[in-house]
Protein: Chorismate dehydratase
Amino acid sequence: MGGGNVKEPLRLGRILYTNVWPVYHYFDPSSLSFPATTRVELPAVLNRLLLEGELDMSPVSSFAYGTAADQFMLLPNLSVSADGPVKSILCFSKKPFAEAIQGRIALTNTSATSINLLKIIAEKAYGAKPEYVTCEPDLEQMLEHADAALLIGDHAIRADWSNAAYTVTDLGAEWKNWTGKSMTFAVWTVSKQAAARHPDRIGELAAALAASKRRGLEDLTPVARQAQAELGGELAYWLGYFENLNYDLTAERLDGLELYFRYAREMGLLPQEAGIEIWTDNTEIRVNE
Structure:
């Protein structure tokens, strides 16, 4: 078992944002029994690198997985999800949300999942037909020429801290209120090619990430202190932020993710049906056919 060139490094990705920190706080790639390289990038960049075959495993936007689900599998019990407010996928608007989304919406250029979640909520839940423009994640510039602006991750958190002028709508809360389901924003994705070539490595990697996550969630204070040191804010804020997120991939998470994929397909955002396959011990578990 194992396969592949033992000297060939496994190419890993890692999302730049703080929302994945509890999974990575105790993860040390150098402690793996095989060589590994890590690219730390915005979700949109990781999405592209994984789809272009430049990475073997990476957390990516759920939507990116859905666009090429036949080429990838999900590592078990790993996600960034929220069962209600997510606190870092935020729509800022000059008017109440329901009014603002009837006009022009400035979209961040950093994550496909959140962009398409906003489109699904605006068009399916509210029946809106907004105009979309894509911008760099700068709130004031975005709202110079738009009625609403979508920010995600640390950009959204910082903008929310300093905001005094705009209505803020949490898309995790909107999704939960509308569908009654949780929303999975990111998943840990491995290419089927890498899983076939290096099954032992993927197993070791999955175990190392699971152990780091378990330890990180047992006491979130070190993770929260790191976030406070690097981004500012209060320790209590960061503790609450991380405690609010879900990092599992339960049947409940998959149910919400399947609905998201279904709506995206119905709206023509996904080119094909997105089946979900989960890697385990070099086998594939088909969650839906």
Remarks:
- The chain has two domains: 10-82+183-286, 89-179.
- The CA atoms of residues 102 and 166 lie 16 Å apart.
